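Supplementary Data S3. Sequence and structure tokens for construct A.
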Amino acid sequence: MRLLWLGTCLVVASLFSAAQSGTPAQPQGRIIGSVVNDLNEPVGHARLCTSVVSANSAHTDCGAQETDADGHFDIRVRLETNRIYAEKPQAGHQADHNSMELGIRVKLSELAPVANVTIKVGPAPAEVILDAVDRSTGNPVGAFVVRWIRVEDDGPVASTESNKNRVFVPPNTDLLLTVRSPGYERWFYTDFSAPSKPILRLASGERKTISVELVPVSK
């Protein structure tokens, strides 16, 4: 009986403490779905971003939530959440964060707290394979960082970096491509058919191998 009495006291104390704190648990919603590209192929490990968008503002949360290896997700969100989108910059799927209309609309409520969606992140990315060598010796350069920058009419709008020699990039998009490595000058991609316009543009699913000759920094 004593143990039962002590347990009852603990429960009552806990409820009283929660009431005194004035911070009742916020109701949550749930969004279930999958992320695919334009060919309906799953996009695994894509980052999920949820937004609360009103007439004058937008609050977006791009936390640690992501799809599983098969592109599926099941996440808890604030009940006020009304948009969701996905991106995977390292695979060429990068969202336009300047757009207030970004993402799929969802409507959650206490009576209908669950939404089911399919998010499309655009066409399959293109792939760039970089073969970097020292221009003076011809020896391979193993440690380098690749950066691509998406270019639009009003200037660069997005970029990402990778320390791998195989890089996925957005297709059908004008890109600036650079490579840097310790002890070498920064390398910039140049289209030899149009040297005055150093722009890389590849189609969805296209693969391109680029030779990179790095020039040692003069001492």
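Construct B, processed identically:
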Amino acid sequence: MAQPASPLDVQPGVLPLWDIDAALARLPAEQRAKVAWAKAPALAALDRLEGEPLTDELLAEVAGVLAKPLAAVTSALWQTLASRDAWQSLAESGHRDDAALMNSFLTSEDARDTLAWCLGFVRSLVAFTSVASAEVMAQLRGDELTHALAQPQNVALLRAEAALLGARRLAHRDGDPERAAELIDAAFMLLCEVQDSMRHDGLWLSPFVAESPDERAERTLRYARQVRDALSEDDVETLDAARLRSLR
């Protein structure tokens, strides 16, 4: 008989953006003791994103260190939660807490808009992976998830998650909002790569799945005003002169 598909067969590599301390606190004492080791390397890796120059190499190194701790904690949570609904509820609660924390911390409206896109896209990814049964999720081991995270198609996703986790840690520590905005911008570019790759495979996921038509229109107009405000008169004239006027 064919084996049921695992969450990794659906969209390998996606992880909710776990707060390590909060995730560990949700585990029974025995399970928590088994994965308590994950906290120190994860936080040490994220601390590097606070002060070191932000480069592709740094994000790659931090993501590489985070893979095993995050996989271990995720696997333990899957085994602890009683249902798929509980998994989805926990992930959604975390997303809301992250949005509230970082929106109050960020000083730039542009950064808050970019954060909303990033968190919305990750939320859609997590919801998509939740089609698997709780039994399959509970059987998934941390080493399998770690291996999946290392696959080429998941590199951009894990680096984006590392950047978002770094931004959230800055908010928790009342760090530099501008550095957090840099990390969010980096996450956005990486998640756009993930979205483009998924579209190429025929899958469309929106970061604003619950948005009404009126909300979409308001958001579009707000983006247009922000772009216009950022352009000088010379910029506008240059763009206007370069406008395509004929297909002949």
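The longest helix spans residues 56-80. The CA atoms of residues 34 and 76 lie 9 Å apart.
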